[in-house]
């Protein structure tokens, strides 16, 4: 058995680099390196043992994987930050729409109440707007990796009552009540 080399020459380093690159193509083997560098397979195997090619490949792969993971994490965080900016913009728009439906009233005791500024034409549109606000809040919290149940500033629940009917429906309902009341008195 021949003696293993003690020092890695530039040619041996090139052979290792070629060996490493072959792995990126899924064809890493000593025969391909021997052919490329015009050496015997036994010589290449001796170089691989002497300079621990397998361990070096593992270490390099680990290093590259860590770099890729770091870059991926950075991209994900930047993307999440961009999404949060968009969610906040949408949230402001929806909040303004919801606020437009209400006005603050201060009663004689100085307590502030919210009252409908106008009766929504379609209660389901108002409900959809409020549901959208809820979804935006949840999305923002998910993007912050803060589960919805653990918010420190508390949750807000808004209930839309079906008693708020569009003006046309209110008029129709009153007419029906008047008609049915006059028929029963005859």
Strand and helix layout:
Blueprint (H helix, E strand, L loop, with lengths): L9 H15 L5 H8 L3 H10 L2 H48 L1 E5 L5 E5 L6 H21 L23 H19 L1
Helix pairs in contact: 1-2, 2-3, 4-5
Describe, in short, the structure shown.
The protein has 186 residues and is mainly α. The protein has six helices and two strands.
Describe the 3D structure:
- With 186 residues, the chain is mostly helical.
- It has 2 domains: 10-51; 73-161, no CATH class.
- The chain has 6 helices and 2 strands.
- A two-stranded antiparallel ribbon has the order 1-2.
- The chain starts with 9 loop residues before the first helix and ends with a helix.
Share of residues in helices: 55-70%
How many helices?
A: 6
Total separate domains: 2
Please indicate the percent range of residues in DSSP E strands (runs of 2 or more). 5-15%
Order of strands in the sheet with most strands: 1-2
Given helix and strand content, the structural type is: mainly alpha
**What are the secondary-structure elements, in order, as H or E?**
HHHHEEHH
Rounded average pLDDT: 77
Basic shape: rod-shaped
Using the CA coordinates, give the radius of gyration. 36 Å
Uncertain spans:
146-166
Main β sheet profile: 2 strands, antiparallel
Number of DSSP strand runs: 2
End-to-end Cα distance, whole Å, is: 122 Å
